[in-house]
Amino acid sequence: QKEVEQNSGPLSVPEGAIASLNCTYSDRGSQSFFWYRQYSGKSPELIMSIYSNGDKEDGRFTAQLNKASQYVSLLIRDSQPSDSATYLCAVLTSGTYKYIFGTGTRLKVLA
Amino acid sequence: DGGITQSPKYLFRKEGQNVTLSCEQNLNHDAMYWYRQDPGQGLRLIYYSQIVNDFQKGDIAEGYSVSREKKESFPLTVTSAQKNPTAFYLCASSKPGSEAGKLFFGSGTQLSVL
């Protein structure tokens, strides 16, 4: 069974701090990696996608991928209370249409 | 505007009843998906379809059925065989090779048992 694992949290950080969210995956054939943000009662929205080893930055968000260690992380700089949400890690295996989601990490940014 | 429309937003099922959740997209996407989300949990795949008239079971297909007669539509039926249907149901679509595999989600349907 291919798995994606995340710490469920909650992860609490003060406003203005860096929030670090981690995700590990079991399938070495995975090629595409995504971070979604989900507010309570709403549908997920894509924040970042990453496909090759290293870092990818977009505004306050940085995604990091290490395929050898099979983990992907999301850093949120200058965290804001509006960043408080559940962050879902998703993995897509090459040659398939099947996305596997982690259980999500709940982030709380304290004002 | 292009997007995915799910209806209804809230749905109540009586014991022994089948109910159908609607999902329509006008994004011209080939692939469509149904996910189930329980409180505090991630998304679990029920069914997915890569092309019209073809679909595959996901990890939790028992008690559910789908059809894909049109590219735009992928309805999900929750049958009476699904004994614990209360959950948030999300429909999604994607166009492999386009926008790097991004999943587009509908707004979801909350299903509850009376």
Please estimate the helix content of chain A: under 10%
Alpha carbon gap, first and last residue of chain A: 40 Å
Low-confidence runs of chain B (pLDDT<50, min 5 residues)? none
- Nearest-angstrom radius of gyration of chain B? 13 Å
Major sheet description of chain B: 7 strands, mixed
What is the overall number of helices of chain B?
0
Describe the structure.
The complex is a heterodimer of chains A (111) and B (114). The N and C termini of chain A lie far apart (40 Å). In chain A, the strands form two sheets. In chain A, strands 2, 4, 5, 9, 10 and 11 form a six-stranded mixed beta sheet that branches. In chain A, strands 1-3-8-7-6 form a five-stranded antiparallel beta sheet, with no helix packed on it. Chain A is 0% helix and 58% strand. In chain A, β4 (30-38) and β5 form a beta hairpin. Chain A has strands spanning 4-6, 11-14, 19-25, 30-38, 45-50, 54-58, 61-66, 71-76, 85-93, 99-101, 105-110. By secondary structure, chain A is mainly β. Chain A contains no helices and eleven strands. Chain B is mainly beta and 114 residues long. Helices cover 0% and strands 49% of the residues of chain B. Chain B contains no helices and eleven strands. In chain B, strands 2, 4, 5, 6, 9, 10 and 11 form a seven-stranded mixed beta sheet that branches. Chain B has a four-stranded antiparallel beta sheet with strand order 1-3-8-7, with no helix packed on it. Chain A binds chain B through residues 4, 6, 8, 32, 34, 36, 41-46, 49, 51, 88, 90, 92, 97-104, and chain B through 31, 33, 35, 40-45, 48, 50, 58, 88, 90, 94, 96, 100-103, 105-108.
